[in-house]
Amino acid sequence: MRKRYDEQLQNLHAALIRMGEMIEGAILSAVSALQAHDVESARTIIAGDAEIDQQERLVEGLCMKLLLSQQPVAGDLRRISAALKVITDMERIGDHATDISELTLMLDGAPGMGAGDLRAMADKTCDMLRMSLAAFVAEDVDGARAVIDMDDEVDALFLRVKGDIIEAIRSGRNCGEEAADLLMAAKYFERIGDHATNIAEWAVYAATGLRGDEI
User: Fold this and answer.
1) Which is it for the CA torsion 159, 24, 92, 8, positive or negative?
2) Which residue among 7, 58, 99, 177 is the one 20 to 30 A from 166 at the CA level?
3) Other C-beta atoms within 10 Å of 103: how many?
4) Residue 164: which region, alpha, beta or left (left: phi > 0; alpha: psi -120 to 50)?
5) What would the pLDDT profile of 28-39 be if each residue is shown by its tens digit?
């Protein structure tokens, strides 16, 4: 019975990692499309969100199968319930990649401000997502806590983008609509960092039972 459970748990972890890879690709493609004002790529990312949603349903099904067929208790039950929370955060990250792509469609051209910092935010949040999932699978509490600490770096980048946009507006540049769209894009990246942090916190919970400010 335990061998069967371990096999199913490995399948769940593999599906989680696959979903993470799909989302990471969407994030990086979204920021590239935004920087280059690549409308066709943006539309492809938006259409691809359905595949991420399908993967979410697959992972959810694997979790339910483990719950119903194996009747896990204690730590095993905690890990599966945490996995269900993780996929909710992952699905929202995928939605934000779509949101950023929709902003690309609204812009008149390639962004004239904050593009470098937006790329840095995308790279950092992808690192956080990858590391948080690895920590969840490996029950790596130290790795998860490292991700939680990284959220401050994303917040600092957001403030820098915000500052650049405010300065551009103050300088009298006619960039009101672009500024609003880019600030929203930065906010979506900041939220992606928050969701990656949530995944890291669920990794700690799955391994230790600790929650929130107990971490």
Assistant:
1) negative
2) 99
3) 20
4) alpha
5) 999 999 999 999
This model's pTM is above 0.85: yes
Q: State the Rg of the chain over Cα.
A: 19
Which tens digits make up the pLDDT trace of 119-153? 999 999 999 999 999 999 999 999 999 999 999 99
- Whether 114 has a pLDDT exceeding 90, the answer reads no
* Angstrom distance (rounded) from CA 212 to CA 37: 39
150: tokens are 């990284």
Rounded CA gap, 215 and 212, in Å?
6
What kind of architecture, by CATH, is found in domain 2-214? Up-down Bundle (1.20)
Q: Is the dihedral of CA 192, 123, 131, 64 positive or negative?
A: positive
CB 153 within 8 A of CB 125: no
Report the distance separating Cα 155 and Cα 215, nearest Å: 20
- CB 190, CB 158: distance < 8 Å: yes
Residues 87, 72: Cα–Cα separation, whole Å: 19
